[in-house]
Amino acid sequence: MPRSLRISLYVLASLAGLIVLVALLFQWNWLKAPIEARLGRATGKQVKIVGDVHGEWHWHPRIVFDDVQISEPDWQGNGTKVGQIEHTEIVVSVPALFRGALELPEIKLIKPELALVRHADGSANWTLDLPDDNSGSGPKIGNLQIEHGKLALQDALKKIGIESQVQTVNDKDGNGRIRITGHGTYKDAKFELKFEGGSVLNLRDTTQPYKVNVDAVAGRTHLTAVGTVIDPVQMAGLNLLTTLEGENAADLFPIAGIAAPDTPPYKLTGTLLRKGKIFTFQKFDGTVGDSDLQGTLQFDAGRERMLISGNLHSKQLKLKDLGLVVGAPAGTTSRRGTNTEQRVVAERFRNSDRVLPDAPLDFARIRSVDADVTLKAQTLEAPGLPLEDLDLGIKLDNSLLGLKPLKVGVAGGRAEGGIVIDARQDRVKTEYDLRLRGFKFEEILRRAGVPGHGDGTINGRIQLVGTGNSIRRSLGNADGQISAVMEGGRLSSLATELVGLDIAEAIGFAITGDKTYPMRCAVADFNVRDGIMDPRALVIDTTDTLIVGQGDISLRREALDLRIEANPKDVSPLTVRTPITIGGTFKYPAIGVDPKPLLIKGGIAAVLSVVLTPVGAALAFVDPGEGAQDSDCRGMINEANTRMTPAAQDATKQATPKPQGSPRTGTGSSTPVKPDKHSQPRH
């Protein structure tokens, strides 16, 4: 036998003998210290194997050990317990060890438990304190199985308290997918979670999409999401088909810091994306109350204040679904049901004698974000109101909220302008500036249930400034001007004769049929001071009758105090010429007759001359310049000036007393107009 062969056989025999000797003398518990040290370096925690270590000799031996305790290092957390594992099995590839690599074809954990805690100062026990030389690749793991795992999370910083069950389930390819079900609280709201993702092992690879399926409920908000995440730990690279639904979108503020307005129940489905600190809810579609809503919203969380931007649009937007934003009655009937806020607002409206919205501004929400959002509605639906469409820009910059451009289709025309709310100080200031163009009088009458009693085109302007953290409060002390002008229309003779109480002609029209007279000019011009609307000009001039109004309207008390007096231009033996009083409140107006009619000396010319100057001022305010010299109202002024007699000129110099018998003074006869069942809010 060659010498080299004898040496080789000798070495092999010695090696075999050594292996047999080691196998006979080897104690598996000798592996405790190396395993504890390896796991400690991998996690930055203190790992202790309390039970015995068992194993079997094989090219792929299975090492089994029980009762693993995981704690904070003594120097960091005084040995505070982080978790434990009741039973652990690890399969090791011996051939891989000969190649200098650590491969674990299988890891099985039975009843692992983790108790993760983060304190209010931001310190957390799940922070990994890894050594600087940990840059090398970790062990290659084939299959990870978890049975009856538990995960508890207490996060004082984000106000989260969750207890969950964790286990793996094998898919059709034998891969172990992670499944988590949990419950607890999130920012004082009840929280439930169902999560299913790819293999836990894939969490280490932040270059490949990780499949997830999430179903979470926080309070009254429900979220489902299916798709992929590049880095689940950092929530980076989101691409999730997401459905978000809830009772009120305002609930998103305490949950996610998104300052959404109060809404009826909603459901929206779209794609949730993330790039850096920018989240995008893309091409969503759904409903808010009984209104449809589509669009894209972007949330930039990388700023001092989150910036919400995007475009929203609706084919049919119902005004009742916007009511909660300002505290108006939002209705209590809906295909999607109603929430508590809607029912409270509706009940409060039923029990109140007020109608102006009074929802206070939420300073916490409005000061937490900036916004640049547009909202367009093809149809704006409001029963009884001649609204048509909406085009609104919402810009919020450091608590300065601008609702402009604000364009609303009304009765064949448009209301255009804007509202600016300055909430940078606790004393909120609101500026209203709206121009009313091309309103069709006949459409207003039709929506009010009295079609065919007139037509014409109305233009106007509203310019007010008030303070207060709600619409009612800001209007209650507002200063400014409100004016409306109608020219070139027609007015029902029955209406004008009834206002003037010309009984003979009214009865005749009722028998033979109504007819209309050309209306030269109608002007309603109010000077507003401290919430009181004082009519500088309240005039309707037809070829048959001159109607003049006096008094005031209180926006603060929502009270009416007006007297309407008709001055017929024809002669009728039964013309009473008794003024009509309009009193009561916005919600319950009262119509009455003034028992003490006041006649202005000098006839029609004298009455008309009193209002010529304010009518001219109203024309300049509503539409300065264009067509003012050729308008019917301007023609009425010029004609009256040329025909005014000296006696009439003297009459215009006399002070006109305030009307008597108004609801404010308590005299006169007033008949309240009680709402019928159709005017009451629905239950």
Automatic annotation (TrEMBL):
Region named Disordered: 642-683
Compositionally skewed regions (Polar residues) per UniProt: 651-672
Basic and acidic residues: compositionally biased ranges: 674-683
Species this chain originates from: Roseiterribacter gracilis
Segments traversing the membrane: 7-31
One Gene Ontology CC term in the entry: plasma membrane
UniProt KW Membrane keyword: yes
InterPro entries tied to this protein: AsmA, AsmA-related
Gene Ontology BP, a term: regulation of protein targeting to membrane
Signal peptide per UniProt: none
Protein name: Membrane protein
Origin superkingdom: Bacteria
Segments forming domain AsmA: 1-536
Pfam families the UniProt entry points to: AsmA
Keyword set, alphabetical order: Membrane, Transmembrane, Transmembrane helix
